[in-house]
Amino acid sequence: MRGRRCVIVFAILTVALAYLLYEPFPSAIEQPWPARAYIVIVETTIKIGRYGELLGLGSWGKLCRETQDFLARHFLAPSVPDSITVTDAVFDGVGVRIYRPSTAKNELNGAVVYLHGGGWVWGSINLYEGLTTALATRIGMPVVSVDYRLSPEFTYPIPLDDCEAAVTYFITHAEQYGVDPKRIVVAGDSAGGNLAAAVSLRLNSRKFPIPPIAQVLIYPALQMLELKFSAHLQNTIFIKMPVLCIHVLAYLGVGEDLLPAMLANNHTTAATKAEYASVFDVSILPDKYRSNEYRKPVHEGTPEAVRRVQDKVLDPFVFPLVASDELIRGLPCAYIVTAGLDALRDDGFFYAHKLRKQGVDVEHVDYPEGYHPFLMQIDGPFTNRLADRTLDNIAKYVQQKVKSG
């Protein structure tokens, strides 16, 4: 164990030094050094997983998660304050961790179900303990963190099935936890934001009798049909496109031999892109976020990639931005957070517009200086002020919706 610990620390320090010295960094970031340090850690754990798989040590997702959990236990995660009671439970076969603040505002009787990020491959309730604890403290209500199964071992729809099962179980058993079932918010960041949106869509599609009162989507991944928008081209520091596509392929259960086609935007046909052109209307974006670099494909995509990927990225429960108007109508109100320096930024703008067109109440907050995944720096050794302000705003929204519900 000691030898493994030394290897992990040495690898992180080596990559960190190279990154800090050579990687260009956006000047808009308020606190660049904590951001650099955190991104180094995330990228290094992914590299450890990738190289470990090549050495036959196991799947890259599992190795990545083990490394992150090790770091969370020993370096990253702060201790849970005495004011929070932590309970592990199982909701319909899915592991969860419940954070209940002693200062719970009993008159609200609400709660948040939180779905962690990590590209459907990594992340865990352990890694996210700082964020979920901080959220529970600020809203004064319980937070249920869901330990859903991850790719590549468990591909779509299993992670989504787990999240839906946990959410519906909690809603139907909420009173056992002192929670009003009509005052539950579903939230998540990155891939967790994707899953929170997809769970909301699923429940809406089957007319679930007690839907979440709201959905909080924090820099969510909402589409992979089109990969040459402004955000993809402008923001390559925090989410590099090869890394993003590898995670997507793992979630879809599709081989990485299709990575070149995805990076070239040839995994869907020009006709399909044209069909969804109104959804991806770049005029929706603020002027500062538009790019003149994008050129629409003029050919029909790579046939093998289209055959194996296109139907998957057109499934609205995989990527909610392609959902029909009928599926969108009646969704819970939404709070959408986007980050100006995030490759997923434009997804949030497009989805906010799509929801509003169908009568869904949306509050969309964009942080031009934000990056992926800045909210994870709410606590621990790399805290930043932007995460603090953002979580405060999220907490106020949750309290407002729960109180009015």
General description of the model:
This protein has 405 residues and is an alpha/beta fold. Helix content is 44%, strand content 12%. It is built from 14 helices and eight strands. It has helices at 2-22, 32-54, 60-76, 129-139, 158-172, 191-205, 230-234, 241-252, 259-263, 270-275, 303-313, 325-328, 345-357, 385-404, and strands spanning 84-91, 94-101, 111-115, 143-147, 184-189, 214-218, 333-339, 362-367. An eight-stranded mixed β-sheet has the order 1-2-4-3-5-6-7-8, sandwiched between helices. Helix 4 links the parallel strand 3 and strand 4. Helix 1 (2-22) crosses helix 2, helix 4 (129-139) crosses helix 14 and helix 5 packs across helix 6 (191-205). The protein is globular.
Distance between the termini: 50 Å
Shape: globular
% residues in beta strands: 5-15%
Described by strand count, sense and barrel closure, the largest sheet is: 8 strands, mixed
SSE class: alpha/beta
Radius of gyration: 20 Å
- Oligomeric state of shown chains: single chain
> Into which percent range does the helicity of residues fall?
40-55%
Number of β-strand runs: 8
Strand order of the largest sheet: 1-2-4-3-5-6-7-8
- What's the helix count? 14
The topology string of helices and strands comes to: HHHEEEHEHEHEHHHHHHEHEH
The residue ranges in which pLDDT falls below 50 over 5 or more consecutive positions are: none
Overall average pLDDT? 90
